[in-house]
Design a protein that fits this description.
This protein is of the alpha/beta class and about 350 residues long. It contains 15 helices and 13 strands. The chain starts with a strand and ends with a helix. Bound molecules: uridine-5'-diphosphate (UDP).
Length: about 350
Amino acid sequence: MKITIVAGARPNFIKIAPIIKAIEKKQHEGADLSYRLVHTGQHYDKNLSDTFFEELNIPQPHSNLEVKSGSQSEQTAAIMIAFEQELIQNPCDLVVVVGDVNSTMACAIVAKKMHIKVAHVEAGIRSGDWTMPEEINRIVTDSITDLFFTTSVWAGENLLQYGTNPMHIHFVGNVMIDTLTQNLGRITKPDFWDAFNLETGNYIILTLHRPSNVDEEQSLQKLLLGIDALAKDKKVIFPVHPRTKAILQNSMLDFKNIIYVEPQGYLSFMYLIKNSFAVITDSGGISEETTVLKIPCFTMRTTTERPETQTIGTNTLVGISIENLEKEFNKFLENGPRESGIPELWDGKASERIIEILLQS
Ligand code: UDP
C-alpha cells in the first residue's frame, strides 16, 4: 500500500511524527507499506516548521509545495493546484490528512476528486462555531473522508449525526499525545530559563493566535494588560506567534510580568508547559497537552471542539473577555486545581492503532 501523508502547519508536524514512526516500525516488520511525505509549505518559518522536523526526527519531506501565506482562498487554491500535480506525478492508494488546517481540507478535496481514498486523523471534532476557518475545514474534510480516525467517542457521535457509516469510524486515541508520550524524556530547558529566573511553578505560559483574540490591536492590548495584572507575582512567558507579532509590532506596552519570547521548539515548549503554574491559551492542542500533563489551562475562546479537555481534563473555557478570565483565574487561586483525569485511549498508542487499521483496510 502506498500512502501520501500531508502536513502543512505546526500542529500537523506534531501529529504526523508518530504516524511516520509507526509506519517505519511496520516496514521493518516486513509490511507492504510505503509512504511519501508532502509538506504544503503553509507554515514555512524555521520556528514553526524546520525546528519540528529536526526535534521530532521527522524525515525530510519528499516534496514541498511551498505555497506560503495568502488569504484563506488564495492559500487553499494554491495548495489544491500544487497537490493535484503532486498526485499526478506520484500516484498513491491513500491520502492521510491530519487536523483542521487549510492543507487538510485542500488536499482531501484534491485526492477525493482523483478517486483516491482519504483518511482523516482527528476526524469528527466540532466547535459549532462556523466563523472559525478550522470548523469549515473539519466539516468539508469529513464530508468526503473514507476512513475516520477519532480522538473521542464524542467525535464519533458527531460523525454519526452527519450520516457517516459507523463501520468507517475508528476511535483510536490522540496522536498528539503519542508525540508527547514519546518525547517527555527528551524535553529541555529553554536557553532563557536561568536568565528569567524561572523555576517550577513560578511562571505562567501564554499563547494567543486566534483571529478573535489577536486581530484587533486595541482589544489585544487590553487583554495583555489584564493578564499582566492578574499574574500578580508570577512571570508570564509569552511565545509570540508570527500572526500576533505582526499585530503587536507597533504597540509600546509596559508590562510588569509578561515576557515576549520567540515561538518555541517542541522540546523546550513542553518543558515550559510541564513546569508551569498554569497556562492561558487559545490553542486546542495545548488544552490536550495540559490535560495529560495535569497543568491548569484557561482557554480564551467561547467554544471548544475538544470538550473532554474540560469535562475530564484541566481545561476551563473562559470566553474572550479579560473580566471572565480574571473571575475564573481567581477562583483557581482560591480553590486550587480541580480534580482531573486523562481521556480514554490517550495512551500514546493511537498511531500504532491507525496503522494496524490501515493495513487491514
Ligand atoms: N507549540 C510549540 N511551541 C510554541 C507554541 C506551541 O511547540 O511556542 C506546539 C504545542 O505543542 C501545541 C501545538 O504547537 O500543541 C499547537 O499549535 P497551535 O497553537 O499553533 O495550534 P492549535 O492547537 O491551535 O491548532
